[in-house]
Write a structure and sequence with these properties.
This protein is α+β, with helices and mostly antiparallel strands and 243 residues long. It has 5 helices and 12 strands. The protein has helices at 14-20, 73-87, 137-140, 159-180, 186-192, and strands at 5-11, 30-36, 54-63, 93-96, 100-103, 106-117, 123-132, 199-204, 207-216, 222-226, 229-233, 238-242. Helix 2 (73-87) packs across helix 4. The structure holds adenosine-5'-triphosphate and biotin (BTN).
């Protein structure tokens, strides 16, 4: 592979940086920052991004066939990250649809995919990943949900090692995804899906739907067993919570 890594001490957001430069990038190029002053999560939320041992990393990828293909990609990224961490010997990992990685049932990492381009032609993707490596208590106090980091884990990799392994795994998994779609990842997802078989509530704006999580389909939609049978929901403005 012959990709570039744009490395910064400080940036507002590694996703924002790559989005600004999509026309100069090749698939697989990455951007890393030691600190993000405006790290972002889904739906305008922020990602707590202090200095220290955390990985804030984004990768550029060009999809030739437009955005339709992009749905389900955050699940591929979560599978890639789980595989990388497992290869370093880290256990007790889980994934929460559609974009969270858990360690010991607390949020370890998040994935934010942003895109630009036309719906039906070439589409520029920026895949952002934030991983908590060693979060101090005072930094962690700014996070408004249960979080975890890798610091107590004897298998915790170095930040550079982790970034290199992740870039390689993402490259490999995205190439597979372009050929085979999400079908190639369903088993990997199912093995670590924290909600599979559990009673959950799905929040969509002011609406709440209760059901039992029955996994995902090959488009990345979640399957929920409700009183009216199995229903599928696609990503976007949806949040899943345990009940
Ligand atoms: P959803 O189920 O909708 O994905 P979420 O709570 O995981 O809900 P996201 O928007 O995906 O929300 O992620 C952003 C949220 O992640 C923030 O609102 C905050 O609660 C949490 N968060 C922010 N920074 C960190 C961090 N460094 N580590 C763990 N969690 C964080
Ligand atoms: C989430 O769980 O909401 C997704 C969080 C994604 C955070 C990463 S950190 C690197 C990249 N740059 C950003 O501004 N966000 C993503």
């Amino acid at each position: 592979l012959n990709n570039r890594c744009f490395y910064f001490n400080e940036l507002p957001s590694t996703n924002a940086f790559l989005l600004k430069h999509v026309n100069e990038l090749a698939s697989g190029d990455i951007c890393i920052a030691e600190y993000q002053s405006a790290g972002r999560g889904r739906r305008g939320r922020s990602w707590v991004s202090p200095y220290g041992c955390h990985l804030y990393c984004s990768m550029y990828w060009k999809l030739e066939q437009g955005m339709a293909q992009a749905s389900g990609l955050s699940l591929v990224v979560a599978c890639s990250l789980v595989k990388v961490l497992q290869n370093f010997g880290i256990e007790d990992l889980g994934v929460k649809w559609p974009n969270d990685i858990y360690l010991n049932n607390k949020k370890l990492a998040g994935v934010l995919i942003e895109m630009s381009g036309q719906a039906d032609s070439e589409c520029h993707l920026v895949v952002g990943i934030g991983i908590n490596i060693s979060m101090s208590q005072s930094q962690g106090d700014k996070i408004d949900q249960a979080w975890s980091d890798l610091s107590a884990n004897p298998s915790c990799p170095g930040k550079t090692e982790l970034a290199i392994a992740l870039q390689k795994q993402l490259h490999q998994d995205f190439s597979t995804f372009e050929l085979q779609g999400l079908t190639a990842f369903l088993d990997r997802w199912q093995q670590v899906d924290v909600f599979l078989g559990k009673q959950v509530k799905l929040l969509m704006g002011d609406n709440q739907i209760d059901g039992i999580c029955r996994g995902i389909d090959e488009s990345g939609a979640i399957l929920l067993e409700t009183d009216e049978g199995i229903k599928t929901f696609v990503g976007g403005e949806i949040s899943l919570r345990s009940t």
